[in-house]
Amino acid sequence: PSKLRKTMLAIKEHKTTLTLAAIFSSALLLIAAALYFEHVEGLLPCIQCVYQRLGVTLIMLSALLGVIFRQRCMKIISLAGVAVGAYYTASKAYEHIMIANNSNPFTSSCEFEPTFPFSLPLDTWLPWLFEANGPCDVAAEWSLMGMNMPEWVFVYSVSCGFLFMVGALTLIKR
Question: Which has the closest alpha carbon to 51: 111, 103, 106, 100?
Fold first, then answer.
């Protein structure tokens, strides 16, 4: 029975790692797509877009921690980072959707200067990733299957929240 129990625990740990690997891969693809749209297609990101990139980057780096490190405590920290990143990204995507859908020009605009968490000057440190130099309505003009970029990012972040719950339940059931 002890050998079977060890095997079952290994499978559960593997499920958590696979979940985190899927989250990492999808976040990496989303960042790559954002950079493609910016640097190849010329779709300049607004401040809300950059905030969403920050959240997706947090999701990506948090998931990577859980893939690299096998300890249970690191998996928990990784999943917590994914949850925080998913919440932050969903909230910023929702704000962006509301700005894009608001027809009042006085209340439907982005900030002028980015305010990153902890006042980090990310736009200065990593301008190729976090510099906001586009209007807020550009990302809302692009669409795929009837949904614009902020809507897709919202769906993605909610999906990451769901995958967080799957990973957390796998760890809890140990």
Answer: 111
